[in-house]
């Protein structure tokens, strides 16, 4: 390492395509293209500044928080340091991702190469995306882009990109609800236009925790919950919202109006569902047209044990959400760096739960896809039964698609 600047050690929460990068620190909440964003924590109010950044340095948070996942999908590195070290990050700094460190005034060293797992092993891949550019990024990866069968998007990420406040819309009356649904539908319509033949889009319906809702809501009341992760969100919230049901119908009507039969390339997924009873109740509550496929996210221990029942209840597909599943199995908050050593994505109990989901879904004939960080993929391939495919964030999947070291096994 060259230079004489101070070296600050941290923890890498999300990697990128470069091992070493240099940039100017942005200590504001305003977007400044190509800079390194410095923030005490990552939250929804920083969305514009985050997506404009070349890298992010924060003082708290875990590997799989929502904003950290957004960064991972975009290939934006996230490094966490001690909060007292944030004050020293001004001017030009250099991030060394492999050593999880930052140096002020140092010149970057050349990045080393790395091996990749076999591409065929990921099966029918699903890319976890944050916006339209993620689809174009994947589909620009040459012939292997066709191995990506689906793209998965969280509705709250669409809201952030469009500047929408969903709770304000739901509380604002029929016109506001319809406008919200049309805006989401129009955005998804653009996504469908970027798909290759045979690809589809999966919308994870709104899953806005109260702490995140407070950052993007201006007028609607938001309950203060002692533990938002285990509070009123996901399927629980959707079941109680008549407004969301009407908004979803506006989404589907917009897609059908502009895309015709191509609207069927957009599927719906239930977030944070506890069991088959909740799944059936929500399907009835939403009043979906007959024959509309509805998949489910398995991210709680109760959903793991209800896998067979969820399949029998008509779930068209299952997605295993490892990020939440790990924290609930191990009672380790994924956003709390103080328990980072306890948050283990390869813990035997977690893998046993995933194994149960894959084997149960296979027995029922229901497709199942498992989320994986790139760093865990080799381990999962070696220790889990083969699902229909793996889900990965855009930047990590792109590296796998483009890697010359990703040998084919077929």
TrEMBL record:
<keyword id="KW-0418">Kinase</keyword>
<dbReference type="InterPro" id="IPR040442">
    <property type="entry name" value="Pyrv_kinase-like_dom_sf"/>
</dbReference>
<comment type="similarity">
    <text>Belongs to the PEP-utilizing enzyme family.</text>
</comment>
<dbReference type="Pfam" id="PF00391">
    <property type="entry name" value="PEP-utilizers"/>
</dbReference>
<dbReference type="InterPro" id="IPR008279">
    <property type="entry name" value="PEP-util_enz_mobile_dom"/>
</dbReference>
<feature type="domain" description="PEP-utilising enzyme mobile">
    <location>
        <begin position="32"/>
        <end position="79"/>
    </location>
</feature>
<dbReference type="InterPro" id="IPR000121">
    <property type="entry name" value="PEP_util_C"/>
</dbReference>
<feature type="domain" description="PEP-utilising enzyme C-terminal">
    <location>
        <begin position="197"/>
        <end position="370"/>
    </location>
</feature>
<keyword id="KW-0460">Magnesium</keyword>
<keyword id="KW-0479">Metal-binding</keyword>
<dbReference type="InterPro" id="IPR050499">
    <property type="entry name" value="PEP-utilizing_PTS_enzyme"/>
</dbReference>
<dbReference type="InterPro" id="IPR036637">
    <property type="entry name" value="Phosphohistidine_dom_sf"/>
</dbReference>
<keyword id="KW-0808">Transferase</keyword>
<dbReference type="InterPro" id="IPR015813">
    <property type="entry name" value="Pyrv/PenolPyrv_kinase-like_dom"/>
</dbReference>
<dbReference type="Pfam" id="PF02896">
    <property type="entry name" value="PEP-utilizers_C"/>
</dbReference>
<protein>
    <submittedName>
        <fullName>PEP-binding protein</fullName>
    </submittedName>
</protein>
């Amino acid at each position: 390492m060259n230079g004489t600047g101070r070296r600050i050690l941290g923890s890498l929460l999300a990697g990128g395509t470069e091992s070493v990068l240099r940039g100017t620190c942005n200590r504001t909440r305003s977007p400044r293209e190509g800079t390194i964003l410095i923030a005490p924590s990552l939250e929804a109010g920083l969305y514009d500044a985050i997506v404009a950044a070349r890298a992010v340095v924060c003082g708290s948070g875990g590997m799989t928080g929502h904003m950290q996942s957004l960064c991972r999908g975009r290939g934006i590195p996230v490094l966490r340091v001690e909060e007292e070290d944030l004050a020293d990050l001004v001017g030009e700094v250099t991030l060394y991702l492999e050593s999880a460190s930052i140096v002020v005034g140092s010149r970057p060293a050349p990045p080393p190469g790395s091996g990749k797992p076999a591409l065929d092993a990921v099966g029918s891949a699903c890319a976890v995306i944050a916006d339209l550019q993620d689809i174009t990024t994947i589909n620009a990866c040459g012939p292997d882009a066709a191995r990506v069968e689906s793209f998965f998007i969280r509705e709250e990420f669409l809201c952030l990109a469009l500047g929408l406040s969903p709770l304000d819309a739901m509380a604002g009356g029929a016109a506001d609800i319809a406008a919200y649904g049309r805006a989401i539908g129009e955005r998804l319509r653009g996504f469908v236009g970027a798909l290759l033949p045979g690809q589809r889009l999966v919308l994870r319906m709104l899953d806005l925790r109260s702490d995140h809702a407070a950052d993007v809501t201006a007028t609607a009341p938001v309950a203060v919950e002692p533990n938002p992760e285990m509070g009123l969100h996901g399927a629980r919230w959707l079941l109680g919202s008549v407004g969301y049901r009407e908004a979803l119908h506006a989404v589907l009507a917009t897609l059908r109006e502009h895309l015709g039969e191509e609207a069927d390339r957009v599927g719906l997924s239930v977030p944070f569902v506890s069991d088959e009873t909740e799944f059936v109740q929500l399907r009835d509550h939403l009043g979906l047209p007959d024959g509309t496929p509805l998949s489910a996210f398995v991210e709680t221990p109760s959903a793991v044990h209800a896998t067979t029942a969820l399949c029998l209840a008509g779930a068209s597909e299952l997605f295993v959400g490892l990020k939440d599943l790990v924290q609930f199995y191990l009672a380790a908050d994924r956003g709390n760096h103080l328990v980072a050593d306890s948050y283990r994505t390869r813990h035997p109990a977690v893998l046993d739960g995933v194994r149960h989901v894959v084997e149960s879904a296979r027995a029922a004939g229901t497709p199942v896809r498992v989320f994986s960080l790139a760093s865990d993929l080799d381990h999962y391939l070696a220790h889990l039964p083969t699902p229909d495919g793996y889900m990965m964030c855009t930047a990590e999947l792109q590296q796998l698609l483009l890697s010359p070291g990703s040998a084919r096994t077929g």
